[in-house]
Amino acid sequence: MKIRHLILFFLMITFISCGKESSGADESFELWSNHKVPSDFKIYNGQYWKSSHWSYEYITFLHFKAPTNWIDDFIKLNDLQIATGEYSMPYDAPEWFAPKVGQKVYIEKGITQGSMYFVNQETGEVFLYEIQL
After folding, report:
1. Which residues, other chains included, contact 90 with Cβ-Cβ below 8 Å and sequence gap of 6+?
2. DSSP string, 46-69
3. Is 115 helix (H, G, I), strand (E, B) or coil?
4. What is the Cβ-side half-sphere exposure of residue 85, based on CA atoms within 13 angstroms?
């Protein structure tokens, strides 16, 4: 009976600790997008966390430069809208996550968990905070 409890304990530890984390810029982008970094992108910083839970919980911070057409497609594909009113920065944002004055802030339409996308469409600079819990 004791061996059964020991095996169960080790299985639980294995499944609980199987999340994924990265603070590498390119790796964080690739984990978030599930694609290699395109050659016309420049990834400056990234931080990614994903739980091992079956519900696919994750938190992503990215700072990158992308082509304007990619940004436009991303906004359209994700049905984002320009934020109106006040918003607050995530309390757990890394130090480098510092959107610049003049960037448009996009949010998801409808119910949101707080994801925000700061975009300078002239330069292609993006600060992305995306959360799914």
Report:
1. 61, 97, 114, 116, 129, 131
2. EEEEE-SSTT--EEEEEEEE--HH
3. coil
4. 4
Tokens of 131: 């959360």
> Which residues are registered as beta bridge partners of 14?
none
Distance CA 82, CA 106 (A): 4
Q: How far is 39 from 114, CA to CA, in rounded Å? A: 30
The per-residue pLDDT for 13 is 42
Q: What is the pLDDT of residue 64?
A: 98
Length of the chain: 133
- Compute the distance between CA of residue 21 and CA of residue 9 in angstroms, rounded to an integer: 23
Asked if residue 130 has pLDDT above 50, the reply is: yes
| Overall pTM > 0.85 | no
What does the block give as tokens for 86?
């006040």
Helix (H) or strand (E) holding 88: none
Environment class of 112 (CB within 10 Å of its CB; exposed 0-12, middle 13-18, buried 19+) = exposed
